[in-house]
Design goal:
Blueprint (H helix, E strand, L loop, with lengths): L6 E7 L8 E5 L2 E7 L5 E5 L13 E3 L2 E3 L6 E2 L5 E3 L17 E4 L2 E6 L22 E9 L3 H9 L3 H5 L7 H5 L3 E5 L4 E11 L3 H7 L5 E10 L3 E10 L14 E13 L2 E10 L6 H31 L13 H18 L8
Bound molecules: fe (ii) ion (FE2).
Length: about 350
């Protein structure tokens, strides 16, 4: 398996990075993060150039990292500014630094050739930092390859079976999807609109709707990293107004950032932003706990699947059906992105 390099990935929430050194591996590359005295996020390779000691096990002094083993000292750009016992700093004494952008509450890091990093390519999740929404969020480590999480999120019919009692009802699996792929902009859309569905506890308790609902799930996946689920629920039959306004609909923006850690593990960032009960702490606590439970149900299932896949011959022939069209489109685009990253001559046409 090859990673899609030369792409932006979510490395952390902004709140995770402060004046403590913070280690996280992204696409197999161990990185160390910190916030400079001016507040900007810095990302460097987490290995001292001298004897590979993790810089994350070291000490921050102003805006420099002093290696905890022999004192090699690096500035924000990764250049070594001090070595012990000699005045001459070797020309090769530097560690790679990584382009970073803080946006929509996430810390995005560019994995690939520095000079190809363009912040305009980062997909947006504006609700997460919008005062018109209240957001709960977290990150769960997944001991499975990231493709399994992509498959999982692109096909929500599994909600009925894996997440019954939380977000799944029979109508989710029973309602057909529509899939559209924008090959140029590399966005995959999967929609499932349920006209008359049972209201699962996730929405009944948070919205206060008593009875059946009209429930829309509109997925928008920006490979490789950002997955958006625009979720709308309303009492059954209540639709948006002709002018597009939707005063009686409840809107939940479910955001996942899918970041490979290694070939067989993934950072599963999740966030739930809502446009109702904005100041209701009970609703926030309930949605945080419910969504975390749902994510952990997926984590348990995908961890099992990873172990199964690793133990079996690679030529296993899966069977795909209509519910898989979004996931198959995602696999195709991810494969192409990975191939392009291997072949710089092709460039990255996004
Ligand atoms: Fe799930």
């Amino acid at each position: 398996m090859t990673f899609a390099r030369n792409q932006w990935y979510v490395a952390a929430y902004g709140r995770e990075i402060g004046r403590e050194l913070f280690a996280r591996t992204i696409l197999g590359e161990p990185l160390v993060f910190y916030r400079s005295e001016a507040g900007e996020v810095v990302a460097l390779a987490d290995r001292c150039v001298h004897r590979r000691y993790p810089l994350s096990e070291s000490r921050l002094e102003g805006d420099t990292i002093v290696c905890g083993y022999h004192g090699f000292t690096y500035d924000k750009a990764g250049s070594c500014v001090f070595v012990p016992g000699q005045a001459l700093i070797p020309r090769t004494a530097r560690v790679p630094s990584y382009p970073v952008v803080e946006q929509d509450s996430f810390v995005w890091v560019w994995i690939g050739d520095r000079d190809r990093a363009d912040r305009a390519l980062i997909p947006r999740a504006p609700w997460l930092a919008d005062p018109a929404y209240t957001t709960v969020s977290g990150m769960e480590p997944l001991a499975a390859r990231y493709e399994l999480l992509v498959d999982n999120l692109m096909d929500l019919s599994h909600e009925t079976y894996l997440h019954g009692g939380y977000i799944g009802t029979p109508e989710v699996a029973n309602t057909p999807i529509t899939t559209e792929v924008d090959e140029d902009n590399r966005v995959i859309y999967v929609s499932r609109h349920m006209a008359d569905a049972a209201c699962p506890p996730f929405y009944a308790k948070s919205t206060g709707i008593d009875g059946r609902i009209t429930r829309w799930q509109d997925i928008e996946y920006h490979p490789p990293c950002l997955y958006l689920l625009h979720s709308r629920v309303a009492p059954v039959g209540v639709l948006p107004e002709a002018d597009g306004s939707d005063p009686h609909g409840f809107h939940v923006e479910v955001v996942y950032a899918i970041t490979p850690e290694t070939e067989h593990s993934t950072h599963d960032f999740w966030a739930v932003a809502r446009d109702f009960a904005l100041d209701d702490q009970e609703v926030s606590d309930f949605l945080r706990e419910s969504n975390r439970t749902v994510v952990l149900q997926d984590v348990t299932a995908l961890d099992i699947l990873e172990r199964v896949i690793q133990a079996e011959p690679p030529d296993y022939q899966e069977l795909s059906i209509n519910i898989d069209t979004g996931g198959l489109a995602a696999r195709r685009i991810l494969k192409r992105m990975a191939a392009e990253a291997d072949d710089p001559a092709k460039g990255v046409a996004v």
